[in-house]
Amino acid sequence: MGTSVAQTFNSTQVGHEQSGAGVEVAMNAVTKVRVEKLELSYGTYKALHGISIKIPAKQVTAFIGPSGCGKSTFLRTMNRMNDLIPGVSISGSVHIDEQDIYAPGIDLIELRKRVGMVFQKSNPFPKSIFDNVAYGPRIHGLRNRDELAAIVQKSLERADLWREVRDRLHTSALDLSGGQQQRLCIARALAVNPEVLLMDEPASALDPRSTAKIEELIGELRSDYTIVIVTHNMQQAARVSDTTAFFYEGNLIEHGPTKQLFTKPTEKQTEDYITGRFG
Amino acid sequence: MRASSLPEVTATQVADQSIVKARSSRPALAQPWSELVFVLLARTIIVSALCILVVLVGSIIVDGAARLTWSFLTSFPSRKAENAGILAAWTGSLWLLVLTVVFALPVGVGAAVYLEEYAEKGRFARLVELCIANLAGVPSVIYGLLGLQVFVRALYFERSVLSGALTLSLLVLPIIIMASREALRTVPKGYREGALALGATRWQTTYSQVLPAALPGIATGCILAFSRAIGETAPLVTLGALTYVARVPDSLFAAFTALPIQAFNWLSRPQPEFHMNAAAAITVLLVLMLALNVVAIVLRTRFQKRQR
């Protein structure tokens, strides 16, 4: 496993010249999301034990770790989707551009406009393709049809779906294939013009070709958005991300440039995980 | 997520369960005759139940067919059976139905939305849920007594259409709430998360995603509840609606009668001619209920098509 990840890494390095450039570049980038001593409990069960991390702007950060390590839970603290779960308590702080998103009086709607999310299971609404993408702008008050059409087209283009659906924008989104549905969900998230894009195992339910398409898309989006992706697939983390964070049992074990984390991890647990000794 | 803290326990439990499952599913294959007996038994029960229904409905239609004329629908009740009609009864039933929908639908669906989408899922919510489930099982006469005391006497609504409709609303509310909650629960979590993650408010999420997705289920449950309401006799009799009414209700406070009450009234007379009238009235009631159920089915399929 370990060798295969390293190999994957080397073979994809060409396409990732900027990210592979080195430790300094990745870690010296402007911080977009700064998390300090974040703790989260579901009732009496503690899911996250004091996590501190700086997520660089306009780069791809991957969260890896075994199932149940808290990586998805942590991802959801960044757009406060955990608020919906009864019995959740959170301490510590999450700053996006130096704004504490857990401060009292924070506008959740504004926050979620800035921090978009794509879910593990693609969840298009049972509406037309057009209405799916237009949903976000519409709920935020945009009524002008020409503007909506322009946003829909631009978002679908960015999600690399426009050419496939341009002739059937008003057919049901549920008739699309799994991979297309997931790209539609990405387009839907892009339509509200977010700064950060959270992706919770976006390709785990897709076939290899659709997965490759999503990964390619992430590569195209990274210049404009800060992307955080949770993945089970270490090769995927190696292929798409600039920095990688390894989570284990609710702790952040290590966070560093992806190449370094996969080839010269500093922590023993990280090494054990990426070489396939557990997980 | 939480399961991972005890991986070994969960794994063995799962293994145990699958062994049990594998064992218990074996005998059915090894003993096909028992399955045969069960299928035969089930078919016999279904066929006999259908036969009984056909005989019952058939005999009512045969009994009442002779009286089912246009003048039967457009005449008021009379001392002479052959002149008596159900104009007051079916208009009364229609009034009751419309008013019950107006009162019970918004309150019932609203309560379901609140309980499912807004209320905190704590001890109080469970208590409310328990109460609603129990209320759905309370005999309808009790609702009649409640209506008599509250609407007829305390609020001075008298024996009016309004009192009747409010009483029937109370009767169907628990059913509507439970059916609507069930429908809301079947809406995939992804719709809510998808909308909320785009910055939709809870209300926008409910209104634009959750309610439309739950609508077929809500509509079906509600229509079934209302078709039960128009067949109810006991609570209306308890209210004191079992009287001679020879006019179409023209206001909320008008005295009224309804189809099941009229049928009950005629049935309780000794003359067989009136029994024919009762059969005819019941036939009309059955047609009305059937029509409501057809509406439920049509609505359901239409919504489902639009969702696809």
Short précis:
The complex is a heterodimer of chains A (279) and B (308). Chain A is an alpha/beta fold and 279 residues long.
Can you walk me through this structure?
Chain A is 40% helix and 24% strand. In chain A, helix 6 (129-139) runs parallel beside helix 9 (178-190) and helix 7 (145-158) packs across helix 9. Chain A is built from 13 helices and ten strands. In chain A, the strands form two sheets. In chain A, strands 6-7-8-3-9-10 form a six-stranded mixed sheet, with helices on both faces. In chain A, strands 2-1-4-5 form a four-stranded antiparallel sheet. Chain A has 279 residues and is an alpha/beta fold. In chain A, 47% of the residues are buried. Chain A has helices at residues 2-12, 17-20, 23-28, 71-77, 108-114, 129-139, 145-158, 162-165, 178-190, 208-221, 234-240, 258-263, 268-274; strands at 31-42, 45-56, 60-64, 88-96, 99-100, 115-118, 196-200, 226-230, 243-248, 251-257. Chain B has 308 residues and is mainly alpha-helical. Chain B is built from twelve helices and no strands. Chain B has helices at residues 7-30, 32-65, 70-74, 87-118, 123-136, 140-154, 161-185, 189-197, 202-231, 234-239, 259-267, 272-307. Chain B is globular. Chain B starts with 6 loop residues before the first helix and ends with a helix. Chains A and B meet through helix 5, helix 6 and helix 9 of A and helix 8 and helix 9 of B.
